[in-house]
Amino acid sequence: MKLEIYDSKQEVAQKFAKFLADFINGKEGVHIALSGGSTPKFVFDVLADTYAHRIAWHKVNLYWGDERCVPPNDSESNYKMTTDHLLSKITIPQENIHRIKGENDPAYEARRYAALLEKTLPIFEKRPQFDLVILGMGEDGHTASIFPYALGLWNSNRSCEVAVHPGTGQKRITITGNIINNAQAVVFLVTGADKAQKVTQIVKKLPGYAAYPASLVAPKSGALWWFLDAESAKGITSGRS
Fold first, then answer.
1. For the chain, how many helices (H) and strands (E)?
2. How many Å apart are CA 16 and CA 59, to the nearest integer?
3. Could you read off the pLDDT of 55-75 as tens digits, one per residue?
4. Fewer Cβ neighbours under 10 Å: the N or C end of the chain?
């Protein structure tokens, strides 16, 4: 695990955008699973503003780690957010954009997207392998759309599952832990004081940390980064000289 801690959410976005540009440009072709949330939105803005013409987007294939079961033009859609803040501002082949179709029947879509991953991604140890999975973390320690009350989804043998938000009952499609941990690299983007307690528990492995899905992220490759702002990292930086 490598911790990258910066002063602000904006600096996290700038540093991660540079990391991502270098990651992409260092490969012949790349398969990336994107995350929703406020921090990726900042990253997408930086990518669009600074890297629209400095990344070889034609060799990038984009996927989503999770998606709400809503139409693609819904304000809650991760795909819509990515389109508004990034895809509409760069030149990338349409066939390189592999969205989860939130408007479909959830069970059907989980099967369809799993089949798509198994068809388009390289296979490593009998599972689809992303080059990079980008994750966020909720205040409750969830990641992708795997919530603490449904930890069993993490170890599913399926590539994708239907998850249910514990508060709203909204259905979501999510990739599972076996796919996340099979990736060549995984990056967490976490910002805000409301995440500090869980970040501290997980990073320091304090009592109860294993109850949070984010604590289960441990790619076989060993390539795991946490990009944090000062507020989310305050519990692991306090007392440092």
1. 7, 11
2. 19
3. 999 999 999 999 999 999 999
4. C
Domain 7-235 of CATH type 3.30.1360.70: no
Mean pLDDT score of the chain, rounded to an integer?
A: 96
Count CB-CB contacts under 10 A for residue 164: 17
**Residue extents of the structural domains in the chain:** 7-235
Residue 114 scores a pLDDT above 70: yes
With beta carbons less than 8 A apart as the criterion, state whether 45 and 5 touch.
Answer: no
CA 49 to chain centre: 21
CB 171 within 8 A of CB 110: no
Q: How many whole angstroms separate alpha carbon 63 and alpha carbon 218? A: 20
Query: How far is 77 from 40, CA to CA, in rounded Å?
Result: 13
Tell if the pTM clears 0.90, that is, is over it.
Answer: yes
Instruction: Classify residue 73 by burial, with Cβ atoms within 10 Å: 0-12, 13-18, 19+.
Output: exposed
Is 145 within 8 Å of 172 (Cβ atoms)?
yes
Instruction: Report the candidate in 121, 53, 48, 123 with the shortest Cα–Cα distance to residue 87.
Output: 48
* Dist CA 45 CA 52 (whole Å): 10
